[in-house]
Amino acid sequence: MSKGTRIIRINEEIKKELSEIIRNEIKDPRIKDTLVSVVNVDTSSDLKICKIYISVMGDKEQKENVIEGLKNASGFIRREIARRINLRNTPEFIFKLDDSIEYSIHLSRIMDEISHNSGDDTHD
Predict the structure, then answer these.
(1) What is the pLDDT of residues 10-45, one digit of tens each?
(2) What is the DSSP code (8-state) at residue 47?
(3) What does DSSP assign to residue 91?
(4) Distance of alpha carbon 115 from alpha carbon 49, whole angstroms
(5) Which of 30, 41, 65, 71 is the most exposed place for a label (fewest CB within 10 A)?
């Protein structure tokens, strides 16, 4: 198995377990009361650092609170990941905000509005 395939498999496993931990294990109200999705996981080849891209539906303050809550819970998250996934080294987690889902929804609304408005013009 190539090293790239191994990292891809590890990324997917971390993403799955982390989603489960965020949804069911973390009790922090900054995270629990907000819609949070793990969009992507990018682990370095030496398994020292793992960048976690998080999507948060909400305003800027809610997004900042969720990232802060995840940073505060990173020790707990790391222990849980180590317990659930058999890795020699459990990476250090870096949480980053990802607005791609929100941006996609925004673009979809604009496209719907354009198609709706162009449909109105044909009836004049």
Answers:
(1) 999 999 999 999 999 999 999 988 889 999 999 999
(2) S
(3) P
(4) 44
(5) 71
